[in-house]
Design a protein that fits this description.
The complex is a heterodimer of chains A (173) and B (550).
Chain A: H1 2-15, H2 20-29, H3 37-48, H4 53-63, H5 67-76, E1 88-93, H6 96-100, H7 103-114, E2 127-132, E3 144-146, E4 149-151, H8 156-172
Helix pairs in contact in A: 1-4, 2-3, 3-4, 4-5, 7-8
Chain B: H1 5-20, E1 24-29, H2 32-35, H3 39-52, E2 59-64, E3 76-79, E4 83-85, H4 93-98, H5 114-118, H6 136-141, H7 146-154, H8 157-166, H9 179-188, E5 195-200, H10 209-216, H11 218-232, E6 236-241, H12 246-262, E7 277-282, H13 292-299, E8 323-327, H14 328-340, H15 342-346, E9 356-363, E10 369-374, H16 379-386, E11 396-401, E12 407-410, H17 420-425, E13 434-439, H18 444-458, H19 464-481, H20 487-503, H21 507-511, H22 514-522, H23 524-533, H24 543-549
Parallel strand pairs in B: 1-2, 5-6, 5-8, 6-7, 9-13
Antiparallel strand pairs in B: 1-3, 3-4, 9-10, 11-12, 11-13
The chains are: A alpha+beta (173), B alpha/beta (550).
Chain lengths: 173, 550
């Protein structure tokens, strides 16, 4: 009983979140079927930016899926992230065409400059570095996605400049 | 309420008349590649300028699907002159409009890449770059949904399967399984509930064919799915598409809504008793979900892990019901097969591999982009004629097909024909159609390591050979590339590769060794150079710096 109560109090906060309405909507559209788990997690990530632990608990409860399975799915698929993203995101494509065109060089430079490896966020929360399997923009290799904008035919210097703008902006304000 | 043939023809007629009213058409590529080169901005500027000049009545600016030559984005095509402009910017807009009907702008004209545009034969991509992917009327005007009408009103499900069988169409997802056989199996499976799944989980790095088809002509895939549903007796379909392709997802969703509005999806399609509904399911970034049983598990909301086959999805698929799973390109071939007959399709390409194949040409090649060629085209023609050869005057080294499950083809095999059998003979696979060209700056051991790293991190971990084997192979390749490998490592590599091939549960593990095996076969000397001479012939590996440090 006590465990049940904890779950309920922990989730009550999230259901009042404005963003939760979209998650609720997705679950409702799928008739609260357990099979809607992945679709629901997509909605959570779309609106929260990451898979919030409270949200995961609430999704598990509403879809009647064990929390362990929710966690299993959330960690199995690369698209889902359990960590909140930084203010800016930099995604380096590691597809074959980008690899041939020197994506690993770009990645290495960013890693050295920012001091983080893919999947991490800088300590000041300014930037997250991620890699993508393939963006499908192979004609524009090497491609880097900077804050959701696909930038083709990039090189280390150009990416560093953009990243520099983000961090400089931070010190100005 | 349901749409009739007359309604369909009426929509087509209105649209065709509207198009015919324009003297010039400027088609701007609005596929993901060109969009990231600001094609949307150029299109806006063109529209504004056209309306400023008051030319709306005779000059039509239209957003279309992929024009193919992604290397030259943003691409524009001016019809009816057939001129292609490359890399157009906002400042070129008024000049482009001034030149309509006159001499084309020299600086931007890329129609000179005539081999690229002319050596192709388009079936799957016939509407790509011609129609607006976000308007169903445009697709109908191009003959769309007539195949569906024919199938539903003039053919029995068995006759549809017969035509698909006669076409000798083979699965375009990579394995090349005869589509007719698959359809026959599912149509004969017992039970009232069946499903059609369109596999758009294009996970191969270096492949973007399915994305382009969905972005450029989504209705074609939907029509193919509905025909498949009729043929096998299903009333529900799913499009399983990568979340990494937001534009393709959006266009498919728009297309489904439009088709539902016209009654081309839903109940009593074309006044028959046939009902069909399609839902979109998003993938979440797992390469293994391209495997059919893993894909089904993912649609069911579970971990995308494959299970042993048999039973095949044709008997026991989604929710345990018989399920037909076809790739995007396979389904995109269906409407023309129904319209023109299976024999017409069988006449294209080679005897055993009929039809055309869409390839995503990328890497060290001048004209990167999307191409469609008849099966049996020589590799040399693809790379040097259509692809325009290697840029920077460097030498050709290898071409990689089939992504992480495929292999590298060296120069001596450039004259081979591209079809399922010839590629298999070389230890390669057709794959979904990624074709990556490499020049002499690429180290083949490093390439093998790149693909093994991919398979290692994408292995779902269910079966031991794949989970452990890919890691071990990757470790060995790391040793070789950093200069600490031994000759015994090569034997061990071969043994591990054999083990993975024979004992892995699904296609991912079974084909993961292919890049290693094929590079060992054709570029063994590079492995030896790393091991014996401690040098990387291509200068890509960090051996020299490592040795200096020691």
């Amino acid at each position: 009983m006590e465990a049940q109560a904890t779950v309920l109090t922990a989730s009550s906060g999230i259901t009042e979140d404005r963003r939760w309405r979209m998650v609720s909507r997705t679950m409702r559209l799928h008739g609260y079927e357990p099979a809607a788990l992945i679709e629901t997690l997509h909605t959570v990530q779309e609106h929260f930016g990451f898979l919030d632990p409270d949200a995961l608990r609430e999704v598990a409860r509403e879809l009647r899926v064990p929390l362990s399975r929710v966690y299993g799915v959330a960690t199995f698929y690369h698209h889902f992230t359990l960590k909140p993203p930084g203010d800016h995101t930099c995604v380096v494509c590691k597809g074959t065409a980008c690899y041939i065109a020197g994506a690993s060089e770009i990645l290495k430079t960013i890693e050295e400059q920012a001091g983080i490896i893919p999947g991490e966020t800088t300590d000041d929360g300014r930037m997250s570095l991620l890699t993508a399997r393939c963006l499908g923009s192979c004609g524009l290799a090497p491609a880097v996605v900077l804050d959701g904008e696909v930038c083709g035919r990039m090189n280390s210097a150009a990416v560093l400049q953009r990243i520099g703008e983000w961090t400089n902006h931070g010190s100005d304000t | 309420m349901a749409l009739t043939l007359e309604d369909l023809q009426e929509i087509a007629k209105i649209e065709q008349d509207r198009e015919a009213g324009f003297q010039f058409h400027i088609n701007v590529c609005m596929a993901a590649g060109c969009l990231s080169c600001q094609s949307a901005v150029v299109k806006d500027a063109l529209e504004k300028e056209v309306s400023r000049r008051g030319w709306e009545t005779w000059c039509n600016v239209k957003g279309v699907g992929c024009l193919g030559l992604c290397a030259a984005g943003p691409l524009l095509a001016v019809e009816p002159s057939g001129i292609h402009y490359r890399g157009a910017t906002v400042s070129d807009v008024s000049e482009i409009l001034d030149s309509l009907g006159g001499t084309p702008l020299k600086d931007l004209d890329c129609s000179g890449e005539s081999a690229f545009f002319q050596r192709q034969q388009k079936i799957v991509l016939e509407n790509s770059g011609k129609i607006d992917p976000e308007r169903i009327e445009d697709y109908i005007a191009a003959g769309g949904y007539q195949g569906l009408y024919q199938a539903l009103r003039e053919m029995s499900p068995a006759e549809v399967v017969e035509q698909v069988t006669a076409s000798h169409l083979r699965g375009r997802g990579g394995a090349g399984f005869p589509t007719g056989l698959k359809w026959t199996a599912v149509s004969k499976a017992a039970g009232g509930r069946k499903y059609v799944i369109c596999n758009a989980d294009e996970g191969d790095p270096g492949a973007f064919m399915d994305r382009s088809v969905l972005e450029s002509d989504p209705h074609r895939v939907i029509e193919g799915m509905v025909i498949a549903g009729w043929a096998i007796g299903a009333s529900h379909g799913y499009v399983y598409i990568r979340a990494e392709y937001p534009l393709a997802v959006k266009r498919v969703r728009t297309a489904i809504a439009q088709a539902e509005r016209l009654g081309l999806l839903g109940n009593n399609i074309f006044n028959t008793r046939f009902n069909f509904h399609i839902e979109v399911r998003l993938g979440a970034g797992a390469f293994v979900c391209g495997e059919e049983t893993a894909l089904i598990a993912s649609i069911e909301g579970r971990l995308g892990r494959p299970r042993p086959r048999p039973p095949y999805p044709a008997e026991f698929g989604l929710w345990g019901y018989p399920t037909l799973i076809n790739n995007v390109e396979t389904l995109a071939n269906i409407p023309p097969i129904i319209r023109k007959g299976g024999d017409w399709f069988a006449g294209i390409g080679t005897e055993k591999s009929s039809g055309t194949k869409v390839f995503a040409l990328a890497g060290r090649v001048k004209n990167t982009g999307l191409i469609e060629i008849p099966m049996g085209t020589r590799l040399r023609d693809i790379i040097f004629d259509i692809g325009g050869g290697i840029p920077g005057g460097r030498g050709f080294k290898a071409v990689q097909t089939g992504g992480p499950s495929g292999g590298c083809i060296p120069e001596q095999h450039l004259d081979m024909q591209v079809d399922y059998e010839s590629l298999a003979e070389l230890g390669c696979i057709m794959g979904s159609g990624g074709m990556i060209v490499m020049d002499d700056t690429s180290c083949m051991v490093d390439v093998a390591k790149f693909f093994m790293e991919f398979c290692m991190s994408e292995s779902c971990g269910k079966c031991v050979p794949c989970r452990v084997g890919t890691t071990q192979i990757h470790n060995l390749l790391c040793r070789i590339t950093n200069g600490t490998g031994t000759l015994e490592d090569i034997d061990e590599l071969l043994e591990l590769c054999d083990l993975l091939k024979m004992t892995s549960l699904c296609g991912l593990g079974q084909t993961a060794p292919n890049p290693v095996i094929s590079t060992l076969r054709s570029f063994r000397n590079e492995y030896l150079a790393h091991i014996q001479d401690k040098t990387c012939p291509a200068g890509a590996c960090a051996i020299s710096s490592a040795r200096e440090a020691v």
